[in-house]
Specification:
single chain, about 140 residues, alpha+beta, seven-stranded mixed β-sheet, 5 helices, about 30% helix
Length: about 140
């Protein structure tokens, strides 16, 4: 699908967040992310790449900020950007977007300055919590 002016706004916001800084345990701000919720609000965040797996992706920060600020868990469109441009979400981010709301697989993911796809195209066989062994053990 083609990029809209709303998508360009998200790309610009995420791009402005990219500001890699070294900290004693790694690098923060190497990736910026911006999302628009289904109700039209915009949230953003940066990544924290830290030792021992303590960090998290920029998409996680943006999603957590949306939930913290408004309780909204339905993401309409999301983008992540580093110093080289737009980057696709990692597998962990794809799964988070899928499981955070019932409409997660319909989230639009911006993949380039002229391309966006729905999450279901990037995650054709997502994890299903209803089919996992763990969900059957909880009552």
């Amino acid at each position: 699908m083609n990029i809209t002016t709303n998508d360009t706004e998200l790309i610009d916001i995420a791009t402005k967040l990219v500001n890699p800084q070294s900290v004693p345990g790694g690098i923060v701000g190497e990736v910026g992310s911006a999302l628009r919720t289904s109700d039209g609000h915009i949230y953003s965040g940066v990544c924290m790449h830290l030792v021992c797996g303590l960090g998290f992706c920029a998409e996680h920060t943006a999603i957590a900020t949306a939930i913290t600020d408004s309780g909204v868990m339905s993401v309409n469109t999301i983008v992540a950007v580093n110093q080289h441009g737009i980057i696709p979400p990692c597998g962990r981010c794809r799964e988070l977007m899928h499981v955070i709301s019932a409409e997660g697989s319909k989230t639009w993911v911006i993949l380039g300055n002229d391309e966006k796809v729905q999450l279901s195209e990037l995650l054709p066989r997502p994890w299903d919590p209803d089919q996992s062994l763990g969900s059957h053990l909880v009552s």
